[in-house]
Model the fold of this input.
Amino acid sequence: MTPNFRLPSLLLFLSAKTLSLGLFVLCTTGCPDSLPGNNPTKKHDQIKTHSGLNKNGMSSLPDGPWEEMLNQKDRVAIKLDKMSPAPPKQKGIVLGLYSEDPDWSYEPLLQEIADTGASHVSLVIAYYLDTVQSTEIKRHPRFTAKDRTLVKAIRDAKSKGLNVLLFPILRVTEKPTPLHWRGNLIPKNREELQTNYKNLMSHLANIAQKENIYSMSIGSELSTLDTDIQWFRPIAQAVRKRFNGRLIYSGNWDHFKNVKIWPLVDELGVCGYFGLTSKKSSPPLHEL
Done:
């Protein structure tokens, strides 16, 4: 039975040696539930919560599937130093750059984020495929931010003392169903999609390097592709040639244990819509 209630989004960052915990809350603008390519398993794409583990040290992991994930073959070896002090938590808010106005300024929203005491901001920018079989990656005329808008948002964020994570995602224009979203891409030509995706990531890596940001994601929830490390390797290599910051990939909540590309990145992400209850109807708060 599919759980009725899920954590809005739990993004767990894991990386080699020791771990630390951070919190990310996603606030987006102009991104209705009906936006083409939304994950049909996600009821709300406007507000998500991200919890992160990164490289600098935490005494232990929470109970749950994480230990199993870390022990699986082909995962990055992680050594937990239980004596290492935990660094300051990352307090982040994720901002989707979805305004239909190409010259929209996100500065007021970034100021609100900074005023919360956040230390990090993740800037989400969407690019589109026509169908799950498509190989051409397009800028949506309404929902993909222009480069100049992205750069301005990065600079506004940094001017407010926020560390920036650049988080590009792929969406599918055709009506989303459980089989038609970025988690189920079946490109008619995998090499062609790989080339186009590498070109997009390289372009964004150049921006990330020029603007000297903290980190960049090389993908999110690409469940039919992230089991193929050879497909992703040239993409990661192309990004590293251009960008000196940290790289992240985030696997989907129902698939992260099968992701094979963890060795290519610095931080391991999980977009976690884990069930809170198996009830179909809305349970009272005390049961959650």
Notes: The two ends are 17 Å apart (CA to CA).
